[in-house]
Specification:
The protein is about 30% helix and about 20% strand. The protein is an alpha+beta fold. It is globular, with a radius of gyration of 20 Å. Mean pLDDT is about 85; it is low at about 1-40. Keywords: Signal.
Length: about 240
């Protein structure tokens, strides 16, 4: 399955790439705060997608890039019409955030769902959970993140279940009679979007296709239904090279 949004982070994801190499702004161990107590946790509010959320101000410090990394950043800035300072700010702390997200995702009890360094619908990094994360996780985000992170919760499926449901829906669509190819997966708002293209001359009943996809997804869901929005989009221009 092709995951549509490359900005969503998983255990194997890299937050930022410049000139064919990950932008690694490393953090020295002696620069990591060692405070045993976190700052007061702000009050929760609802974000645009309906999740409860709080803003955690990360306190970690990122070391300055070395000469090789500065060259990579210069090249990236030139290729994208940006200044060096704009590019540095864009990727500042991205590797630390990716490592933090991956570690939290690896904890089966964390309730981790998704995270993103940048996404079209957010102006700052975010991490999403099923339930409100524990004080220990909130403290870790505060001490290891290098800037503000929106912590969201209230998603009905954790990362493993969401991916499994998305895979089954994708499989039902791409293997449906008359469908030539498909691409998609979880979106940054927590929904599942699958785009598909029909075989030349084929016709498909969109309602029946949707029912088949939802049945497949429900079988893989711990809730025995599909508790997230699912969008199936007929895209005639979808290229067959997408996987």
């Amino acid at each position: 399955m092709h995951v549509r949004s490359s900005l969503l982070l998983s255990a194997a994801a890299v937050c930022a790439v410049a000139y064919g190499a990950a932008v690694v702004l490393t953090q020295s161990p002696d620069e990591i705060p060692t405070a045993a107590q976190s700052s007061p946790v702000p009050s929760a509010s609802a974000n645009p997608h309906g999740y409860e959320s709080i803003l955690i101000e990360g306190r970690a410090v990122v070391a300055s890039p070395d000469e090789v990394m500065r060259q990579d950043l210069d090249t990236y800035a030139e290729q994208h019409g940006q200044t060096f300072d704009e590019t540095l700010q864009q990727f500042h702390g991205s590797t630390t955030f990716s490592e933090l997200s991956n570690d939290i995702e690896a904890d089966p009890h964390s309730g981790y769902v998704q995270s993103a360094w940048h996404s079209p619908d957010a102006d700052k990094p975010w991490i999403r959970f099923t339930d409100k994360p524990s004080p220990a996780i909130l403290l870790r985000i505060e001490t290891e993140a290098t800037g503000p992170v929106e912590v969201q919760w209230g998603a009905p499926l954790n990362a493993t279940s969401l991916e499994r449901v998305a895979q089954e829906i994708y499989g039902a669509v791409v293997n449906y009679p008359g469908v030539a190819t498909a691409t998609g997966g979880p979106e940054s708002d927590g929904s599942i979007k699958i785009e598909y293209r029909l075989e030349p001359g084929a016709t498909v009943n969109a309602t029946q296709l949707r029912r088949a996809a939802l049945r497949a997804g429900a079988k893989a869901s711990p809730t025995k239904d599909v508790p997230v929005e699912v969008r199936l989009v007929d895209s005639p221009e979808l290229q067959s090279s997408l996987k």
